Amino acid sequence: MKNFSSFKRLSSYIKPYRLSFFLVLFFTVLTVIFSGALPYVAGLPTTEITKNVLAGESLNFGYIKQTLLWIFLVGLGYGIAQLLAGVLITNVVQSMMQDLRRDLEQKINRLPVSYFDRNKQGNIFSRVTNDVDAVSGALQQALIGIINALLSIAIALGMMFYIHKVMALVALIMIPASFFISKMIVTKSQTYFNNMQNALGEMNGYVQENMTGFGILKAYGREKQALEGFKEANHKLQYYGFRAAFISGLMMPLVQLTAYLTYIVIAVLGSYYVIAGALVVGQLQAFIQYIWQISQPMGNITQLSGVLQSAAASAKRIFEILDEEEEAVSEAYLSLPEEVKGEVRFENVGFSYSPDKPLIENLNFTVKAGQTVAIVGPTGAGKTTIINLLMRFYEVNDGAIKIDGIDTKKLKRSDVRSLFGMVLQDAWLYEGTIAENIRFGKLTATEYEVVDAAKTANVDHFIRTMPEGYAMMINSEGDNISLGQKQLLTIARAVISNPKILILDEATSSVDTRLEALIQKAMTKVMQGRTSFVIAHRLSTIREADLILVMNQGSIIEQGTHQSLLEKDGFYAKLYNSQFAEEEMSE
Question: Where does the ABC transmembrane type-1 domain start and stop, copy by copy (predicted)?
Answer without folding.
Answer: 22-310
